[in-house]
Specification:
The complex is a heterodimer of chains A (about 425) and B (about 350). Chain A has one domain: L-amino peptidase D-ALA esterase/amidase. Chain A has ten helices and 15 strands. Chain A has a six-stranded mixed beta sheet, sandwiched between helices. A five-stranded mixed beta sheet of chain A has the order 1-2-3-6-7, covered by helices on one side. Chain A has a two-stranded antiparallel ribbon with strand order 8-9. The longest helix of chain A is centred in the C-terminal third of the chain and has 21 residues. Chain A is globular, with a radius of gyration of 20 Å. Chain B contains nine helices and 15 strands. The chains are: A alpha+beta (about 425), B alpha+beta (about 350). At the A-B interface, strand 4, helix 4 and helix 5 of A face helix 2 and helix 3 of B.
Amino acid sequence: MASILSVEDVSPFWLAKTGDRSKGDTEMNRRLFIKNSLAGIPLLSSSFIFNMSRESFLDAEIGSPERGQRARAREMGIIIGDLSPGPMNAITDVPGVKVGQTTILEGQGEHAIRTGVTVIRPPEGQHHGERLFASFFSLNGWGEMTGLVPIEDKGWIESPIFLTGTYNVGIVYSAAVDYLTQRNSGQKGRPVPVPVVAECFDDFLSHSQSRRIKKEDVFTALESATDGPVEEGSVGGGTGMTSFGFKGGIGTSSRVVGIGGNNYTVGVLVMANTASRRQLRIDGVPVGKEVQGFEYTEGKTKSIILIAATTAPLLPYQLKKIAKRVALGLAQTGAISHTGSGDIVLAFSTGNRIPVETNQSFSGINAVNDFWITPLYQGTVEATQEAIINALTTAETIVGKGGNTAHGIPLDQVIDIMKKYHRLED
Amino acid sequence: MNSQNNREMIDSIPWKYQRGNRNAITDVQHIKVGHLTVSKDLLDRSGKKIMIRTGLTAVFPADMRKEERFFTGFLQSRGINDISGYAVVEDFQYLNSPIVLSNIHNFGAVYNAILSYGFNLGRSEIWPPIVVSLDDSSLDGSKESSVTESDVLKLLASASSGSVAEGSVGIGTGLQTFGWKGGIGSSSRTFTVDERLFTVGALVAANFGNGQGLAERIAGADLENRAPHETGSLAMILGTDVPLLPYQIKRIVFDTVLSLPLATVANRDKDSLICLLFSVANAMSMKDEGPRLFRYTLSSDAVLKQAADAASESVKEAILRSICLSKPLDGIWGEKVRAMPGSLFRAILENFKKSV
């Protein structure tokens, strides 16, 4: 029914930025892009572990865009969809959600390490972990995400979500259990919550078998987590990831959705390491077929982990539907979810807090009426697509294992191609 | 409990299927089992005694050098615990790893060590590692991992196809049932189709049960001296050489769980359960340049029925053995966790007898 699909009941504040891509909007975003290009994008909430100078990871000779010249899609004037993002256009627009990252860049040659960990901390309450409704959707299960048993069975998460390289999972899991044991100590009889640790294979750029991540790196990411802007690209778990034939990594985006006079935020964060170059579509434009140069031979096994958070009060079956819409957002970037890709989505809601210990036999729970839920689906699909594009456009070129090089997608070409297809004006 | 009497009691159940030679999961050719028991007292920084009462139990579907995948399915309920490799097993329906039962503190170390084990074999990776967690925290005082990578590698190297140690060994060390000592049990059943012998074997780690609930059903049950029991779990690992496809595995797993007198044994709000079955027949090469087509054997429904019945019997006997073979233990509860009183065991056994 049309009335369900409409986004007209977005509140006036957001309505002002909703709708057609006005010329003014685009120009504003272009200016922002230029400003950022000049100033460079500041380092945000993450810790870096360097055993060498940062410059040596960049291949200036190839002429690929360097750090200060990377930009988010929206800063380039690329506007995905019709809904407006939250203030930071990030998963941290969902109040209480924090992101922390540790980036590990070590050495060169065959044993070069380009890896890290990204942690998403859902609101954890004042003292102990609260439980938030959650669900997952496995579009293609060739990947690891631990903690799925309790999510499927109980319908909630009570752990931070850790994103890292494939072979780091055991070490990150160990660190997570140590953290959760500590966090929940003093709550007798409460089992240690099962951590959620998900992975993509960063072996093209990183000597992943050597598993150089340490528990301390995980604790650092946990401690450094903040609710501010999220650093994207070749950082944290995304450090060694490649996507669509270019450098991939961490990307995030959000949308604000109005339902019946209430504004809800849905935020998506991805660790993108999937798909091949010719598949890439940005806002429907076949950028992957148009872009020239910067080619390299890719590793074979890829994956993408996608995390969605929303303020909308939803029950687990509804979060499963949100998770499926995240997969639709992935599809809009052109990815086909090939057989070796672990494409796993986790969605959680901060709209209800399930008490850990209660003497009450009954307590109240809210949930959006399915009849009115569709705008959230739209926000989810839009934010997912933009998060994946952000991962590409913010990721800088990385030279890794054995000199393997994944280039940042050339933004000047992306802008020209988007103009050619009339998504940007000259 | 007197173990001679217990065995006689278990034998008194009118089982319909023959046992294999060892009456263990290792009766299925190529399956290997290993245990690592961790029982030690440590002092923490403040000088307080920490009692570590845990361990690991590994089940190998085959020699891992063969680079094969085996069709697998599982059923889980009331998920308190974790299974790694969940997405792969659910979506691709096969495994390519030893299955290691562990507590949550050792889970990550075990996961990491299985990766190392695979790298050391000089074959393509063993991935994803399958680790199943059980909650032994009512007897085990661990606050962090108590095994090193070399401990786990030794365990994986030591797994054998001989008879299986049962009771308070491996992950069974810190487990309890109904507040009495629980642990590992194993059993097997065989049947013949067209003059070919097939085997179904089970290994269970029993850590479940609400003693209070049991008392309500069994008049005069002595509930004194039980250890506190907060959360539990019953892990059932089954292997077979019956050729099965994934949807058939799901069916047998479902039938097996349904056949258990769980109303009597499980603590319905707190015990989690996992039943996992793999078939070593219909194995697939996992080499990159494998054949373009695999050819599998499809077993008839009549064969499935026998396999499901054999699975059910082997799990039931394995559960009973896990209860009556477990030895008393001193854990963080403060006193010895005792073996289950014989009268109670008899009552549980009668319940199982009715379900055969």
